[in-house]
User: Which sequence fits this backbone?
């Protein structure tokens, strides 16, 4: 029998915020005619819950690619607070399916494999502090916040913060909870796809793509302006496109003759790009123009993404698209300041990584 993972209205007033009643119902439902639930411990200490959380995260880190963890953050702010820890998990091959209220942005994308946005709720399990995983050992932890008036706000140590929960290694609990969360992910994905189909309003009127004057096969590690998904995205938004040639700026040479410095201060057209010998860049722009998109080019006069933001703001760009490479670039790009970490998170221009664009083109998951 499928277990309903949520506190029901008639369970709210059991003296434990409904958690004790949920656990009794869970024991009866998942045990059935079998043995009592095993490896189970009731928790009401936030400090102990945090210790268990770190143990689960550390075990996943050691397991690496063999581990998938479903994590409840309550809201996007708490994922941002845990950014460094979860970026390390992702970089070590751990799959993280994250849940909470709020919308994902480019800063959080490399801290989770999927972000599953939720409606506000204090009764649903997916809205709670939660970690569930099958490997390296089956484990399910839920810290149910019963301080509903300040739900998801502030720190664990704040006055009035109260949690009731449990940890269990029983596979019946783990598998039932993962099944519920997988079903939730599918429903979120369907709703997201449906809402996108019904959108008729363009989100972005001017999009800047950070690219290089290279052929499609010259550097397979980075996106260039040839990708169909980029062109389709710009078409869907009916957006004007600016190709920002990051390879134009160097500590040693200028991309234009000394007498033509004015070309670095404004966007230029394809004919000018071709006259400067940047033929691969022109070929990229041609792909956009052939798709009916108004396209211009920008050759930066300074290194670094701080200058990128300045130019994007000057050109009234709504969105900058970067290759995923720039979230963890090589040494020379870090020296040049071509790194996502060099962009002020409060910048007026939205920044999106390429794999985020791809996920928006398919589903949340």
Assistant:
């Amino acid at each position: 029998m499928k277990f309903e993972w949520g506190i029901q209205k008639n369970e709210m007033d059991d003296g434990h915020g409904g958690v004790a009643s949920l656990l009794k119902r869970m024991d009866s439902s998942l045990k059935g005619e079998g043995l009592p639930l095993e490896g189970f411990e009731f928790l009401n200490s936030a400090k102990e819950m945090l210790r268990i959380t770190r143990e689960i995260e550390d075990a996943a880190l050691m397991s690496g690619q063999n581990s998938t963890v479903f994590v409840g953050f309550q809201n996007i702010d708490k994922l941002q607070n845990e950014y460094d820890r979860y970026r390390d998990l992702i970089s070590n091959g751990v799959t993280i399916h994250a849940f909470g209220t709020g919308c994902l942005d480019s800063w959080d994308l490399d801290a989770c494999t999927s972000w599953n946005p939720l409606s506000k709720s204090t009764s649903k399990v997916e809205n709670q502090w939660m970690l569930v995983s099958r490997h390296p050992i089956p484990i399910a932890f839920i810290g149910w916040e019963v301080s509903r008036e300040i739900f998801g706000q502030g720190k664990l140590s704040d006055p009035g913060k109260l949690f009731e929960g449990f940890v269990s290694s029983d596979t019946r609990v783990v598998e039932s909870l993962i099944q519920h969360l997988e079903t939730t992910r599918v429903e979120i994905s369907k709703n997201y796809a449906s809402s996108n189909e019904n959108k008729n309003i363009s989100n972005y009127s001017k999009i800047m793509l950070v690219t290089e004057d290279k052929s499609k096969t010259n550097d397979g590690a980075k996106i260039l302006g040839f990708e169909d998904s980029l062109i389709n995205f710009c078409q869907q938004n009916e957006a004007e496109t600016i190709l920002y040639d990051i390879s134009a700026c160097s500590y040693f040479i200028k991309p234009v003759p000394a007498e033509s410095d004015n070309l670095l201060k404004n966007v230029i057209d394809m004919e000018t790009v071709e006259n400067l010998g940047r033929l691969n860049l022109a070929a990229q722009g041609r792909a956009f123009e052939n798709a009916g998109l108004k396209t211009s080019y920008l050759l930066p006069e300074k290194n670094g993404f701080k200058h990128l933001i300045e130019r994007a703001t000057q050109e009234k760009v709504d969105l900058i698209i970067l290759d995923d490479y720039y979230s963890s670039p090589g040494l020379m790009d870090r020296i040049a300041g071509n790194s996502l970490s060099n962009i002020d998170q409060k910048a007026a221009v939205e920044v999106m990584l390429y794999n985020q664009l791809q996920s928006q083109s398919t589903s949340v998951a």
About this structure: The chain has two domains: 9-197, 206-358.
